[in-house]
Automatic annotation (TrEMBL):
Keywords, alphabetical: Signal
Protein name: Dehydrogenase
Domain Gfo/Idh/MocA-like oxidoreductase N-terminal: start-end pairs: 40-170
InterPro entries membership: Gfo/Idh/MocA-like_OxRdtase_N, Gfo/Idh/MocA_oxidrdct_glycsds, NAD(P)-bd_dom_sf, TAT_signal
PANTHER family cross-referenced by the UniProt entry: BCDNA.GH03377 (PTHR43818), HYPOTHETICAL OXIDOREDUCTASE (PTHR43818:SF9)
Signal peptide: 1-31
GO molecular function: nucleotide binding
């Protein structure tokens, strides 16, 4: 594991706003109106801070009306079975979830009986396919937190199963929805001709390098560039990676993954009408708004094809590393 500490980053990137960061204070802050039928949210996996932060946002007394009344009512603890950094987070997160009055159940089956939609929050992408299958079979809409899986093969299997059971699903990093990226997506600089982004990129031995944390930057890059990448080259050192993607229309996008030194998220997008700086992370709210809109409508804000291509991009980057920086054609 690199000198980056995922939990240290989460503590640094503190959420601001009423009702957030207030664990341990009066429970009345989160004693809002009980969820109505159809609005009950279940959580799978308490090995990530997202489970707590999303619950605080949805269950606050003065929760944003744009959340459409969705509230977390039950949670299943099991996430990763063997990643130490994830397992160490469970006791603290479990205590905070209980403080919010959220029921703890002993199985995914029990969770599905008590809830209407699912936040699959397990930190370990390797368990996502196994945990998502019963959700699909139950016909419940599900958001799968990043990474959607720990391999391209499992990613394809997840979407194939969702299609089989006709259940909407999507996966995303919160970084995709930061304001500076959304402004570019809405045409601020015209057609995007290229992009350079940077991201913290600590690694975890159970996942391909970029899948564990660098995926945040990959989401940023693809949110700016869109699909169509077909060639990937990765230059790597002990402390840093630079991954270059060439799109089929000739555009170039780069990702700098930082494992040591000052960290943050950012970059620049280049367009026909200007150059836009890409800002840092500030809040989970834009992502939670997208999730609750998805729960309400069943329309995923990120298409399966884009998520699949991002996973192919990261696998190609790993293959390029193994080949000492050779260019790799993506398997999409």
């Amino acid at each position: 594991m690199s000198s980056y500490d995922r939990r240290k980053f989460i503590r640094t990137a503190t959420i601001t706003g009423v009702g957030l960061g207030l664990a341990g204070r009066a429970s009345s802050l989160f004693a809002g109106t009980p969820a109505t039928p159809g609005k009950r949210v279940g959580i799978i996996g308490l090995d990530t801070s997202h489970s707590v932060e999303f619950s605080k946002m949805l269950n606050a007394v003065n929760a944003d009306p744009a959340y459409n009344g969705f509230k977390v009512t039950a949670a299943y603890v099991q996430g990763s079975k063997d990643i130490t950094s994830s397992l160490e987070m469970v006791p603290g997160n479990l205590a905070k979830i209980k403080e919010l009055g959220i029921e703890i159940v002993d199985s995914i089956a029990a969770l599905l009986e008590k809830t209407d939609v699912i936040l699959l929050e397990s930190n370990d992408g390797r368990v996502h396919l196994e945990q998502a299958l019963p959700v699909f079979k139950a016909g419940k809409r599900v958001f799968i937190d990043k990474p959607i899986a720990a391999s391209l093969a499992d990613t394809r299997a997840i979407f194939k199963a969702a299609e089989k059971y006709k259940v909407p699903v999507f996966s995303s990093s919160a970084l995709r929805f930061i304001d500076s990226i959304q402004q570019v997506a809405q045409g601020k600089i015209g057609k995007v001709t290229g992009a350079d982004v940077y991201t913290p990129s600590p690694t975890e031995k159970t996942h391909p390098d970029l899948f564990w944390y660098g995926i945040h930057g990959v989401e940023m890059l693809f949110a700016l560039m869109g699909t169509g990448c077909h060639r990937v080259t990765r230059i790597t050192s002990e402390d840093m990676d630079v991954v270059t993607g060439v799109w089929k229309d000739g555009r170039i996008g780069t990702l700098r993954g930082v494992r040591k030194g000052p960290y943050g998220f950012g970059g620049h997008a280049f367009g026909e009408k200007g150059i836009a700086p890409i800002g840092d992370f500030s809040s989970y709210q834009p992502l939670v708004l997208q999730i609750t809109a998805f729960f309400q409508t069943g329309i995923p804000p990120v298409k399966p094809e884009e998520t699949i291509e991002m996973m192919a991009f990261m696998e190609a980057a790993d293959e390029s590393k193994k080949k000492k920086g050779a260019t790799v054609t993506m398997n999409v």
